[in-house]
Records
---
Amino acid sequence: KWRDILSEINENVTDVSYRTWFAPLVPLEVDEDAKVFYVASSNDFAIGILKTRYISIFEQAVESVFRKKYKVVIKEKTEEEIENFLKGSSGKHTQIEEKKETEEEFREEYFLNPKYNFDNFVVGSNNNYAHAVALAVAESPAVVYNPLFIYGGSGLGKTHLMHAIGHYILEHNPSSKVLYVSSEMFTSELIKAIQDKKNYNSKMRAFKKKYRNVDVLLIDDIQFIEGKESTQAEFFHTFNALYEFEKQIVISSDRHPSKLTDLDERLRSRFQWNIIADIQPPDFETRVAILRNKAKQENVDVEDDDMLEVIDLIAEKVKFNIRELESALTRIISYSRIFNERITVKFARKNLNDIFSTSDFNITCETIKKTVCKKYNIKISDIESAKRKREFSHPRQIAMYLCRELTDSSLPKIGEYFGGRDHTTVLHAYEKISAELKTNSLMAEEIRRIKDDIQ
Ligand code: ADP
Ligand code: MG
């Protein structure tokens, strides 16, 4: 199975490599006669890397899952082709899956990503409540909060928290039966059982057994069953059975239950029987903490000044999705390893140009500071210092003025960028320069040039 292969690979390569090279691949088909396993990628660069560096790891993973040797062939396909393949022939996609399935169809399917645990979940004001209740549930399943409903936007850590609950419970009580499933998988298994006319009864029995004989059911992205009546009905019974036998249910969704409008009212109300915890987008500090944590995991020196700047830059730019936040960082790290270049702001900008695209080019205080220093030929440490000489204080005030004018940063935040100055100092600089600009056309011209450079 593809997921088994991926998780096998995941254990043998670094997280960065896994995400950069393997996660985007799509399995195409298995040629049993020629013993070839075909996968597709739309990125020829990635294909080159995979072929030269990772093919043996890949083939070993395939072998250990299928218990047979296959040659792995990576085909280049356009994104469109891949999409069509995934959409149109989901039949074909499952062909690979079905090869091994048959009688094993309902074997325990859950897969908990070892990287999603409580230890590496960064807690901030955006998620501390969800984290606290998730931990409480993990410590005492079915005792404190049942059901637990977690909701929040995409990429904010719902799946991570659910897996963390699963790991924790299994760690402390290895015999407990934990089942993690995406609602999509739940639905597709149900459909398979329903469609199998010949074995309908046994299939349905197996399905029910699988979902009702657990101690903990973690069901992800429940919004997926909106509008799907038979899935909802089946899930309703599953829910009731588990609840009645005091089994823990954890549900995640991209919305509050009351916003799941295309859902059976009975389910909607059950979801609200106990705790509902939301996860909000992380604030700047939490984003930085997440990135630093991630960088550390990747063995990157996070005390390095350039790295700190890059982290700030990414944290300023990617605000609403931790998955994207992390992938910007992993990309930079893996590119720096491939190209054997140091990670600097310039390198990051160049390689994350899709994120820093000119259309919504986001000017940061960092850029302003640097540009101003260059213009006046002084050092960053000078502009951040307490030196009062005009050759330093003038550029400093101009830089503060520009930060105030060109970014959304608050006065205290700007102060931090300039050696931890008080917000009143920043305000004073801003007002002073604004006033001067009105009468001093030379200075207006000077500032206009700096702005050009910045942009
Ligand atoms: P969701 O399920 O809400 O779409 P995920 O749980 O898949 O989001 O999280 C997306 C990525 O962000 C994952 O790699 C996850 O490890 C990471 N992530 C999310 N929240 C945190 C956090 N608080 N600390 C560390 N990593 C996080
Ligand atoms: Mg998720």
---
Amino acid sequence: MIEFRQVYKRYPTGQLALYNVNLTIHAGEMLFITGNSGAGKSTLLKLIALLETPSKGNVLVGNMPLTHLNPRQIPSYRRKIGFIFQDPHLLYDRNVFDNVALPLLISGMPLPDIKRRVNAALDKVGLGRKTKSFPLMLSAGERQRVGIARAVVNRPTIILADEPTGNLDPELAQDIMYTFAQFNDLGATVLIASHDHGLVERMKKRTVVLQRVEL
Ligand code: ADP
Ligand code: ADP
């Protein structure tokens, strides 16, 4: 469902981040991308999310080369993707419910549907009882769960997570990985970039190792 064909990425600074990447990710797969800092993990995820474009080669999603999407198709493509960052960047003056509801409010969904969706997403990440809490009242692990709920509330078919456990203790990190595995069991294709080799190994999923390009 996601295919990289001879993909190169060179940033305008001249820095080469990806060199001839060929990779097929199947629908419904959970895949880890590992490699040292600077190996290009983030860049690979950003190419799928259309946050960057390849310098050469093609990224295809559902057999569609992303470069062929016309501008009108891009918003609906983006809605298929949930992106989770190392830092969830929550709005600190809004409670958990409102943080998660934000993408749905923007899409103009009716309020009763929003409530149902948001509560369902928060239940899935284990925060069903914290809907009224404010981010500062939560632990780092709980804040990251809010970020995950917000990313999946649109029911994306693809979930991309960039070092989602980078700020967490090992035990919390493990829980977060299980949360992703649970969305994968529900059918989402999940890609997680992480440099935590021990954690990745314990999940027993296919793992792609990127090497830093020295060119
Ligand atoms: P990782 O996620 O594995 O740490 P990145 O994809 O962030 O790797 O980075 C790969 C390489 O590209 C690194 O050398 C990094 O410095 C460089 N890089 C990443 N983003 C940019 C950017 N916006 N501009 C210039 N160089 C970048
Ligand atoms: P609903 O159909 O009311 O949204 P579900 O229990 O089917 O309730 O799903 C609850 C929430 O879990 C969804 O709103 C979504 O956030 C998340 N979810 C469910 N299935 C998936 C999936 N395949 N991929 C991503 N997120 C999902």
